[in-house]
């Protein structure tokens, strides 16, 4: 039933202006609209709705992620536009903050201004 329907991704923010600056200027997302309830982006024909809330407790795990063809280029581009990638002491990350998982996927994490954890993943060549 829902497998034939479009997915809507949801996050939350307590500061719409700060969120717009990050998602548009740092991540390069395409803005669609904003109202009193949410900021909407089009991400490869998937709607991302960033809900406006009064309080937010960010979760410690990844809330939203992107599959990227070249993780080094993506990390470099985001870093050059002001993004900061997370460092996790328990993971063997390279100097850019990229970790290679046992499956061969390469992953990097960053937080948005509200503390939501976002990830970039480059799948192993055989899995693409």
Number of strands: 8
Overall mean pLDDT stands at 96
The CATH topology is 2,3-Dihydroxybiphenyl 1,2-Dioxygenase, domain 1
Name the poorly predicted regions.
none
Q: Taking strands numbered 1, 2, ... along the chain, how are they ordered across the largest sheet?
A: 1-4-3-2
Q: Helicity range of the residues?
A: 10-25%
CATH domain class: Alpha Beta
Compute the number of helices.
2
SSE pattern, N- to C-terminal: EHEEEEHEEE
First-to-last CA distance: 27 Å
Tell me the CATH superfamily: 2,3-Dihydroxybiphenyl 1,2-Dioxygenase, domain 1
CATH architecture: Roll
Note the beta-strand portion.
25-35%
Largest sheet: 4 strands, mixed
Structural class: alpha/beta
Global geometry? globular
Give the domain tally: 1
Radius of gyration: 15 Å
Summarize it.
The protein is an alpha/beta fold and 128 residues long. The chain has a single domain (2-54, 61-127), classed as 2,3-Dihydroxybiphenyl 1,2-Dioxygenase, domain 1 (Roll), CATH 3.10.180.
Task: Please describe what this structure looks like.
The strands form two sheets. Strands 1-4-3-2 form a four-stranded mixed β-sheet, covered by helices on one side. It is built from two helices and eight strands; from the N terminus they run E-H-E-E-E-E-H-E-E-E. It has a single domain, classed as Roll (2,3-Dihydroxybiphenyl 1,2-Dioxygenase, domain 1), CATH 3.10.180. The chain has helices at residues 16-26, 71-80; strands at 8-13, 30-34, 38-43, 46-52, 62-67, 99-100, 106-111, 117-122. The mean pLDDT is 96. It is α/β, with parallel strands linked by helices. The longest helix has 11 residues, at 16-26. It is globular and about 40 Å long. Strand 7 and strand 8 form a beta hairpin.
């Amino acid at each position: 039933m829902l497998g034939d329907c479009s997915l809507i991704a949801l996050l939350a923010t307590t500061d719409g202006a700060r969120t717009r600056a990050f998602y548009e200027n740092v991540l390069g997302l395409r803005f669609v609209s904003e109202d009193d309830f949410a900021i909407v982006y089009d991400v490869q024909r998937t709607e991302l709705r960033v809900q406006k809330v009064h309080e937010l407790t960010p979760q410690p795990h990844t809330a939203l992620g992107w599959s990227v063809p070249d993780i080094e280029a993506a990390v470099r581009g985001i870093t050059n536009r002001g993004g900061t990638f997370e460092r996790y002491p328990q993971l063997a990350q390279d100097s850019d903050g990229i970790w290679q998982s046992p499956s061969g996927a390469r992953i990097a994490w960053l937080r948005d201004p509200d503390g939501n954890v976002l990830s970039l993943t480059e799948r192993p060549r055989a899995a693409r």
